[in-house]
Amino acid sequence: MSRPDLVAAAREAGDAGFDVLITCAFNYDAHSSDFDKLGRIPVLKARMNADLHMTDDLKNTGKGNLFVIFGEPDIDILDAEDNRIQVKINGVDVFHPNTGEVKSDNADGIACWFIDTDYNEESFFVRHAYFLGANDPYKALKTTLKAEIDKEAWDSLNIDLSRPFDRPASGRIAVKVINHLGDESLSNIGYNAVKADIQCNRTYQRRDKPMARADHIKALLQSHSQGDDQRFYSVAMQVAALEARQGHGKLAQELRDLIDQAKKRKNTRQTSPIPIGRPRGELSDLLTVTYPKLRLSDMVLEDTLAQQIKKVIREQRHGAQLLSHGLSPARKLLLIGPPGNGKTMSASVLAAELGYPLFQIRLDGLLTKYMGETAAKLRQIFDAAIQTRGVYFFDEFDAIGSNRGMINDVGEIRRILNSFLIMIEQDDSHSLIIAATNHPGILDHALFRRFDDVLQYDLPDPSLTAALLKAKLSHLTADMSWPRLAELANGLSYAEITRAVQEALKYMLINKESNVTEKTVEKMLAERQNLRARLFQN
Hints:
The chain is α/β, with parallel strands linked by helices. It contains 20 helices and 16 strands.
């Protein structure tokens, strides 16, 4: 099974309202080894034994291991001399379907184990090979080969502690184990985990105490503060394993039970599909996340524009139904029009109405002077849109979407636009991608067909201006001529009118007046008109 298969299945599970996806396959490709979650949906991978193809032949022989869930190997990373490391294999967990039990086998349950000391995450190269097993495997090997085996050579391979090797240049190692039924399991370990495990084992060797080590406690606090649940559970399981090795089996089992209960509560909790509280790592320099509370009823919009926004919200809320009929809800929107007329507010309203986080793209973090780096960062943003459903908002979009034929066109900007065109064309996430610009005339024409809908924002007409003033001031004034004030505000944007209203409210509070007078509003609107005239004159 490939990674795209898992992604497609997880999306379907999410749309159907399931809490978890369990997949069964005879094998998984290398790229799917680290794929364990899509949005709020955990993905559990079960590997089926090839004997399932031979059910009729094996069902009566007792030799067919027809179904198995073979856990990752329990290993320790140890520090060795000359800044090298070693791997110790402790055993592996195996689920027995006949009894429903999970048994933690020791090294005797492993027939052989291998190490790729510099794993590239694509191909597993056997660089170390060792052979274990119960029932005198040395004797069994001699009998099978019908020959004498060098006992000293065999003893060098019949071990659960590897020979020392250099730290991985790739930053990862991988350990593969095979049991006596031929089932395989691979553990892919990153460099940070290698270092953490080494630190934990240094502490274990230094102090023979049964309780959790300082390194574990620091790692638990750090992962909790960062909201990294997977790392938190991983360190907690290390603590449980350490207690088990110390002979504190009851405490170790209690810790495992608590971890399992915490995972179940997290997976069944009814929350919005937001797996992260804030972008972490490199994404924190590219995205700013907010959780807007504005609603569509808080906006004063022209009827056609309001209907367009309502249509997007309606299609998103019926997304599963549309997808089941081969149709896609509108989710790629281009907002155009002069500044201060509701484009950014519309992105906030869409996020609030749909219960999504609003991720605003930070152009200062996206655009760099190094060739190819901006395109790579764009790819991170579109990957994030797949992993975390939300509203992704590109404001001032003309910075990356300007026409490729312009006189001042720069080669790198052209490459960025080409990358964006490809990525938005290929994007099949469930997130909303919204771009906004005050200058639609300089956008590249190829962009317009990439968006599902284009929303036009204009200056408010007198009726909309009167509605906006009334919505902001009607509860704080006795009597006003809304049409006359609307005429005075002619040519101002929604933002400018709102600013004038705020100035009138501040004037009322500072001067301890009981309400806002028409004269005060008239004065503030006139100030905005004067400011606008000076700006446009310059």
